[in-house]
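Below is a filled-in request sheet from our internal design queue. Each sheet records the structural input a requester submitted and the sequence that came back. We keep these sheets so that new team members can see what a complete request looks like end to end.

REQUESTER: design group, bay 2
PRIORITY: normal
MODE: inverse folding
CHAIN LENGTH: 147
BACKBONE (tokenized):
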């Protein structure tokens, strides 16, 4: 089953790709590596540990992951052209004493593995606490190997 069919089977739909809001591009491909600009959880805003729970953050990271998948599809035409998710960097909008960034990030990681399988979908990752654009709970940056 290809990744787009798997998304549908899981009940997800890719959002329409949004344009950039500054002087940058949404992705850059060099050779077989695709570098994505940040993908936000547009529907979930606020700080983890204050207004947003870990469970809501987990879902927010899935939202950001779907935004990223939309960019990938736009860049290469079909998600089946993804050979490997290489690196995912998560910026978690959180209170100063919040320590569960990794639990929030699991939402995106779980989605990627569910869509692509272990071999393609498992990835290196880092999650850090920060302040995000538009108050988004989660922002993801990615490096993807494509055909």
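RETURNED SEQUENCE:
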């Amino acid at each position: 089953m290809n990744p787009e069919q798997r998304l549908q089977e899981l009940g997800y739909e890719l959002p329409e790709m949004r344009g950039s809001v500054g002087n940058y591009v949404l992705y850059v491909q060099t050779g077989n590596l695709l570098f994505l600009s940040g993908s936000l959880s547009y529907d979930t805003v606020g700080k983890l540990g204050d207004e947003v729970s870990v469970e809501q953050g987990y879902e927010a990271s899935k939202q950001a992951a779907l935004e990223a998948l939309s960019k990938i599809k736009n860049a290469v035409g079909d998600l089946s052209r993804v050979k490997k998710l290489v690196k995912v960097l998560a910026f978690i909008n959180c209170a100063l004493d919040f320590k569960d960034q990794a639990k929030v990030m699991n939402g995106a990681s779980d989605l990627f593995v569910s869509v692509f399988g272990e071999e393609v979908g498992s990835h290196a990752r880092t999650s850090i606490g920060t302040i995000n654009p538009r108050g988004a709970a989660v922002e993801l940056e990615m490096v993807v190997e494509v055909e």
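SHEET NOTES:
- The helical segments are 3-9, 54-76, 101-121.
- The longest strand covers residues 82-93.
FILED BY: M.R.
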